[in-house]
Amino acid sequence: MERLLLMWIKDKEIAGDTVTEAIICAKAIAIFTDIAKEDTGEGNSAQGPHPEFKASRGWFEKFKRRTGLHSVVRHGEASSADHEAAAEFVQKFTQLMIDEDYGAQQVFNCDETGLFWKKMPRRTFITMEEKKMPGHKPMKDRLTLALCANASGDCKIKPLLVYHSENPRAFKAHKIIKEKLNVLWRANAKAWVTRQYFVEWVNLVFGPAVKGYLEENNLPYKCLLILDNAPVHPPGLEDDILEEFSFIKVLYLPPNTTSILQPMDQQVIANFKKLYTKNLFRRCFDITENTQLTLREFWKGHFDIVVCLKMIDMAWQEVTTRSLNAAWTKLWPDAVAPRHVEGLEVDSEVDQIILLGQGMGLEVDEEDINELIQEHNEELSTKELQELEAMQHTAVQEQFRDEEEEDAAIIPTAQIKDILAKFHEVSEFVEKNHPEKVLTSRAIAHYDDVCLGHFRQIAKSRQKQTSLDQYFKKRDAGNTAKDQ
What we know:
The chain is α/β, with parallel strands linked by helices. 57% of the residues lie in helices and 8% in strands. Helix 1 crosses helix 2 and helix 17 packs antiparallel against helix 18. The chain has a six-stranded mixed β-sheet with strand order 4-3-2-1-5-6. It contains 18 helices and six strands. The protein starts with a helix and ends with a helix.
């Protein structure tokens, strides 16, 4: 339950939502209840009823310590949108722009979003077939993007992308060089943006891109980066920025104002996802028209993360200056050009998606497309959290298996055994002498599973191979003796 709950909390953080202690405890009870019902449904009721879970204050405090959770509002309910705080911030922001003499070209906004990159509208045969399949469901495969652009809309920054695999199999097949991608590629097991990744993106991508843009346009070295208060955006971000980019200043939006004020949330991300879907449908249409592959064959055997990256790049390039500029209407109306009216481009994108889909024999309409876009942002159910966790775990295992041969050739078996023995010694010492028995026991088990499990597997596989080699040697020797 706690693993799924932590995934849910991180998902809310990516969306910029504020979560309170009460909301987390309610979700914990809901997940626990769902899991208990699932177990009972599988015939486990003979084991007796599940222990009652109350999500008490004591449990919550321990959960926070175990997970390092710091971004929780301790009291009250999180407002869905604080209009009063938003209005007050707009006034202060407008005055700041005047006082500091910022132009629309010098002010940027960045926001993160999840993307289910292999998802089709629910009524298509691909989605219906996949729902019936047991096990791994590709449509649940998700990555996280950080999208950033300036208020004038003429400077889009290379996105940060976080996936659950550092080196997907498709990268090897297509001989991909990550440094040449049109995204900054990072990876962790949950495909989450972390503070470390965000700081790296600022120093490796954002800073150099903005500096070059200011020089090219003969603008002063001044830049303001506007962020929401999500935990991945460190409060002291300016202190982590390299000296070369010290002209970059950071301003944070007030809590619970993201949905009202954040420019990227004002249809920019939604438009990007529509453009992604349009490019995906166009790619599918071209394949079915110009090759011998059927849509089903392309989707199952040829649509991989490398193709996805091309769709992401095309979609981001197609987000227009008008769309990016109009997104600042609520936060900074003075920066919006009168000719940039919101909403003019959206319907045409949806119409193109529908036409492409119908051209491939898919049953899609405007409601299906809007529902698909919305599904990227909807709260994940317990079942979806379980599927996402299982899919990510499988992907990590596959990557370990792919890299095992390389690791095996590099790390001596004696060294692995030595490290595992030392960890066992340290674990026994900590468990015996540390006052927090439960906390340390879980921490040790988690470290052993995440960090050392891979090396245990290498040692185990080598032991099996050695036994197998010895068996064949003995068999060959026996056969030789018989021949003599």
